[in-house]
Fold these 2 entries.
Entry 1:
Amino acid sequence: MTVPALAQRRAAEAAPPASRRPWRDDLVGWTFAAPFVILFGIFLAFPILASFVLSFTSFGLKDLANPVGSTVVGLKNYVDLFSDPVFWTALFNTFYFVIVGVPLTLVFGLLIATALNRGVSRFRTVFRVGYYLPVITSIVAIAVVWRFLLDPDVGLINMALGGLGINGPAWLADPVLAMPSIIAMAVWRNLGFAMIVFLAGLQAIPAMLYEAAAIDGAGRWQGFRYVTLPMLRPTILFMTVITTIGYLQLFEEPFVMTAGGPLNKTLSITMYMYQQGFTFFHQGFASSIAYVLFVIVAIVAFLQFKFLRSDT
Amino acid sequence: MTAASASAPALARPAPGGGRTSPNMWIYVLLVGGLVLMVGPFLWMLLGSIKPQADFLRAPTLMPSTPTTDNYQRLFDQLDFPRFFFNSSVVALAVTVGNLVFCPMLGYALAKLRWRGKRLIMGLVLATLMVPAGITLIPNFILMSNLGLVNSYPGLILPFLAGPFGVFLMRQFMFGVPNELLEAARMDGANEFRIFWAVVVPIAAPVLATLGILTFLGNWNSFLYPLVMAQSPQMYTLPVALATFATGQYQADHGMLMAGSVILVVPVLIVFIVFQRWITEGIATTGLKG
């Protein structure tokens, strides 16, 4: 939240509509809130709790007609999950995707935003729209197009490499190259989002600070290092958290491009949950996978806030 | 003289903010290079969609040997793409309308009204912003199958009618609405509902546009939930149809898959290019959601 937004918020809370009839205020407030709150309660809040309860049952296809009758199995799903090598593979793959993908996405986003902010006055809209295009595009469509781009026989990338005399690999069928290929695609798709947010952050930095730094003899790099980066800290923190949460939920890309293969090298946690829940109908077990992912997301977000806030 | 020469190097060096007036060619070159990489796959998709099937059987070329609409024809004749397009439109529009009605109401109540339970509701709604989408998938599937709504429009629409992101966006905006304006309307004897409808909604029009566009785009592209909920082809949305065919029997039919991608992508590109200012500014000010 920006400083003006905070100030507005304080002003708003300091001066609520005056009334001497609290019951009437409650009625009005809840009338505005009720439609949203009812839908939210049924389809979001209740399922979050239900998922937790389900993770302690052996819920399967036979229980679909009578959900309350499913068998409670205690911690069995979690015990099974933590002794399941496929789960650890999925966990490893997901973290591989996050740890390599998030920094690359943010660095490219910041580079382009900085270039647009400092050096470009003409065609700014063209660049902004062009770099942002993949962000608003369906991941399924992008994954289908990239699978074709990366195709060893009829793809553009190996055609270009062939032109240089290089015999390109079978990107998505290669256990070592499959995940890096998916990461490259995710970075390509998401750097535009980082760019837009960073660009807004950069434009909020007063030009005065750069002028002061220049008077003190700071060059471009030093200006970036000692003015831009510190001023952009909250934006960088925010983008790191948001991008990490998004990337931890990797699903569409491996679903369309590799089906989790080769040799489970691109199987993600969400994909494993989907397979368990909707291919094999082990929905109790799948709920425990979903909850483990939820806990990981919460811990990672918490650590990033803590770590990136205190560090200077 | 000495003072002038001492300050000369500082003046000669372009100030960090001064790049605006003297554009560096190399920055343009790099940005244009990057732009080619960003737009390239879209061009590859378009060109692939008009290649005849024979082009995929020999050494790949950039351009189609003879441009054809054959791939699109097959989408319409062999597969029911008009139906998938219709399904996607119905679901995305209904969800957009729902969010445009419910989110501003709660956002207004959270920012501008005093009522008991407000903090609790605000905390609950904002807390769910970070919850992974997969968490609600299985319970909602069980709920829908018990309501008999799996494989139906309500089943695809209901869970998304009230999204926390919209509340966050609208609440942020509502804080900025001047209290004096609301007070003046109250003095004139307007009740809260009339104030909301006649005073707040008109001011909020640009933010509502942003929310509407972002909700529509997000839902048009939504995949995991409709994949589970749309079980027969006549309920498929476009992403579900494309993914199903791309991983199934049409796996190697690149021409048809590119044509399908074009149908999924082009409406969104048009919406984006027409409304890009609202979209990018909305994202930049809230800093949320892709």
Entry 2:
Amino acid sequence: MNLLRLAEIAAWIGGLLLFGWIIRDAWRTGRSYDERLLLSSREGEIEKDLGEVVAGAEPAERRADDQSGPRPP
Amino acid sequence: MTTASPPTTPSGQATPSGHLSLLRVLGPGHVWALGVGIVLVGEFMGWNFSVAKGGALGSLIACWVIGLLYTCVAMIDSEVTSTVAAAGGQYAQAKHIIGPLMAFNVGLYLVMAYTMLEAGDALVVGDLLKTVTEQAGAPGLNPRPFVFLTIAVLAFLNYRGVLITLSVNLVITAIACAAILVMFLSTKPWSISGSLMHRELLTGLPYGWMGVIASFHFGIWYYLGIEGTCQAAEEVRSPPRSLPFGTMAGMITLLIAASMTWYVCTSLLPWEYLGSAVVPLFDAASVGTNEALQIALFVGTLCAAVASANGCINDASRAWFSMGRDRYLPAWFAAVHPRYRTPYRAILFLVPIAIAFGFTGLLDQVVTFSILSGLLGYTVMPLNVVLFRKKWPLGSIKRGYVHPWHPVPALVLLTLCAVTYFSVYLGYGKQLLAMLGFYVLASLWFAFHRYRYVRRGAQFTMPWPRPRGY
């Protein structure tokens, strides 16, 4: 077995180990934490100063086709 | 067993807000590294196919005309993203400004463009190693294990945190930039007695102006992916400042790097050879006998390909994560890792897809699909920015950046996109039609099936006033 074959095998093993670690950690994280917590990220909570409304303007409101109730807390 | 553990910071401490979000840790340098890192591989290879279509001068015209297209993209993106600062970038913009169906399509364009480009980059790494081992007298290297290893290492990095991911990108992108600069300086462009042979090698337009238009397709390689800076919107410390600065600085870097690359390569290699070269910069470095320069270009090419794949994993996963968060896709993809604060399921899910495309070995097809998806995304931008300015005129909301001469950039962008579609159609008509067919089918699936699950009440998240005419 020459050096190239060894490098190829090492690459396969290295890749599998890393990918395996990711899968294992993702599985363990899913088991260890409440799913609601993992999915609790919310868009638009960046910075209030970002979309700072100019004086006199109304705050953002839902669109007319809003049918799914209030946002989750 | 499922337990309700508190969310934690990377150091293990509980977050004060009680819910998980992506970490806001990036600065303008990281944004620059994300944008330039994704693109720079295009200076090392790919752009030169435009030389085969339009000759050396045609390629320069493509470089600057497509540069104008991307400058419009960068300006428009900078304005809208400095305001719609959310992960998903253009997807979040389209969601707020146009509507759900367009947002779904834009999200899909982004994911496809970046995942395909990631596969292409990994292919390049594998092919480069194969080429180098052959030159070293050891032929027969199988590139697939290295394609797999590249994607696995970068996925691992992305999984572990955005700060380390983009800090690594900053370093390797700087190395790749330095390689181009070293190559340029090594030809002594200031010296009449240097090695440059423009007078002999620039031979006009071999296929006329139609060849120049055909070269636009590959001119996209010079800049493809710079718009990816927007995907970091939810993770930068100061979006209104960092995003426009990082994006515009990236665009300037690319315009300079693209011009230098063209200048050096077309003065050292005849256009007939350059148009079909796999690694043109490396080949240009091999013209002389400077071994150190060849090594520098090999390292630069490798760094550029790795930086591009790294940025693509980051961007594709943010777009996928965002779509999951809004239920455009199953909510399962919207999970944030409680320790690393990354969209870990989105990262994990896209890895096998990238590997599968990488294993095909079809670099030109993979990258063409990426280009087409990107082009579709750029075509939406003029509509996006015109509606944005109409619904929320200047002064109604705070903008981190206001692009000048509106609507001229939008009109220029739309016109150049139309010309570029024609250019792509000339060379890859079947792929263009197949890609359009795919997006039509995906749109039908979304409209008639998936839309019922979308969280319509949570779509509009920016603290803006009502749009004009609401």
